[in-house]
Task: structure prediction
Amino acid sequence: MSSIKIRNFYIRDIKNKVGASPIWPISANYSLGDYGYYIKRTGRFHVRGNIFDDLAVPRDGVVVPAPIKPVRLYKVFNSSNAVKNEFSLNGEGAAAKGSLSLVFEGNKSYFFQLFRAEVTHLKLNEEVRQRLIQARREGRWHHRYRIIEQLYTCPDVRFQFSISKNAQIELSGNVEKGEIVRKAAVNYGLKSSSNMDGSFWIENAAATPFVGLASFKRRELRFYDEKFLLSEAWELAFDNTSSFDADVEEFLLESDAQLPA
Result:
């Protein structure tokens, strides 16, 4: 199964399961405040810059401080319930061992685990809005840009996929000491497989599998069937849509001048 087919299937399937925009490849890494073009069809975010570095937005009062004891998420995603999984645990405490058996019942299936994921976000306040207004006046801001205002960062992820119906895989490993026992709280190692098409594991990195996006647009006023755009009434709003309504050849994103208005 080619990487493009895997990507297309994954993006189509998972976008309705999370309240954020899926990123491909899953191993990509982004930062809060990055801005650029998001292409929903491919899951690619083409970075043009960062509001803190390029627009001199102060971090104080914009980046929401992390809690003293951050919440770390363990998430498991199956492809449209097409993966049957059974989890078993043996032993207790640091000596506990877990095993996970997966059966990929569909012709196209994936099993995606996030380990120790953290979510951070921006506070899109008046300071940010004024800096963006200035950048727009100076011709440094494209109306199709999206800003990463919410960031899902995960040091460890596992992704298995198969196009073979009834492919199977068994994983086993030690349960992390002090963690609540969940499927995703186990450092698994491959024990056996049958007809599997692929699996990859990212460890000790800073993968960004999902992002929350915002756009900067002129506020609309509507009177019956008439629509008016207020020239200076620009506002920041959450916006996980694609930067473009139609498919755009991504090579055009190398230069803003080539893009449609």
Q: What stands out?
A: Residues 177-181 have pLDDT under 50 and may be disordered. The first helix runs from residue 3 to 14. The helical segments are 3-14, 51-54, 126-137.
